[in-house]
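User: I'm putting together notes for a lab meeting next week and I want to include a structural view of one of the chains we've been expressing. I don't have a solved structure, so I'd like a prediction I can at least talk through. The sequence is below, exactly as it appears in our construct file.
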Amino acid sequence: MLCGAGRDGNHAVKHLKRRVGCPRYSPQARVVLSDLLDKYIDHGVTWLDDLQVLKVPPLSNRGTPAETARLFGGPWHLRQAVSEFQDVLYQ
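Assistant: Thanks for the context. Below is the predicted structure for the 91-residue chain, given as structure tokens.
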């Protein structure tokens, strides 16, 4: 799991926002996770399910989807981080 247990509703989002700063990911990867969480808050789960979101600002400003995936150790690890976000949000 990202860095601990989650909560329901808005509390889960706030909890995840605090946990984005955990040391498991590089500072650049944590910025991407924070941006993804902001997209979730603004647009809902469809933005997390579709990694095409990496092609729209502000995520596109951080590099190509391949460059972003490398921040996590590759595409599989990026998808794993997003999946863990979703798990926490829906616990």
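A couple of points you could mention at the meeting. Confidence is low (pLDDT under 50) at residues 1-8. The helical segments are 9-19, 27-43, 46-49, 65-71, 75-89.

User: Perfect, that's what I needed.
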